[in-house]
Amino acid sequence: MINDQLLSQIVFIDIQDKLVDIMPKSEIKKVIDASSILIQAAKILDVPCLYTEQYPKGLGPTVKKLKSLLPNSPIEKKAFSCLDAPHFKSHLVKSRPQIILCGLETHICILQTALALKSSGKEVFVVEDATLSRSNLNHQNAIHRLRSEGVVITNTESVVFEWLRVAEGDHFKAIVKLIKS
Fold first, then answer.
1. CB atoms < 10 A from the CB of 111, how many?
2. Helix, strand, or coil here: 88?
3. Which position among 14, 49, 82, 122 bears the catalytic label?
4. 77 catalytic, yes or no?
5. Where are the beta strands (DSSP E) in 55-158?
């Protein structure tokens, strides 16, 4: 369980134009919408957000809908695991041991990043409805493998309501509005 938004940070991996273009059309919109909700909820609750771009010269930038919501600049990488990218670790908040992952592709960058983070002692959560692969079979295989390795598989609403913990206050009202939109 995500104990507290004060222990969490969230990472959006490689949701870039050229990768989005080759994803199943019916599914990628859901991933972008779920990611948008998570970014906005993280802002409301002061949960740190990072995002990466895999070889942006070739795969393009993060999709506009998300980039406009994300803070700072992307962490550029060529490695599949974010932990193998030169500056990724220095952007993680050391006092927040719970890392929530979203993005593309589940069976490559999400999988390798999650397993590396788990090996380094982090509590790792993968948001299933905010991840995707070109092939549903590859996506499902990665989800099963991650679960068997002790990574927690969750979903967008579970994450935001675990961050909230109670159904009251301005934060709750703002986040319910996001979920309903």
1. 25
2. helix
3. 14
4. yes
5. 75-77, 98-104, 123-132, 152-154
Which one of 49, 77, 102, 122 is the catalytic residue?
77
**130 contacts 35 by C-beta, under 8 angstroms:** yes
- Catalytic residue, chosen from 102, 109, 122, 129, is 109
Helices (H) and strands (E) in the chain, counts: 9, 6
Whether 49 sits among the annotated catalytic residues: the reply is no
Mean pLDDT, rounded, for 54-65: 97
Mean pLDDT of 71-76: 93
Q: Cα 49 from chain centroid?
A: 9
- Does the active-site annotation cover 17? no
d(CA 156, CA 35): 8
- Phi, psi for residue 70 in degrees, rounded to 5: -80, 145
Decide if 79 contacts 53 (C-beta within 8 A): no
Asked if residue 3 has pLDDT above 90, the reply is no
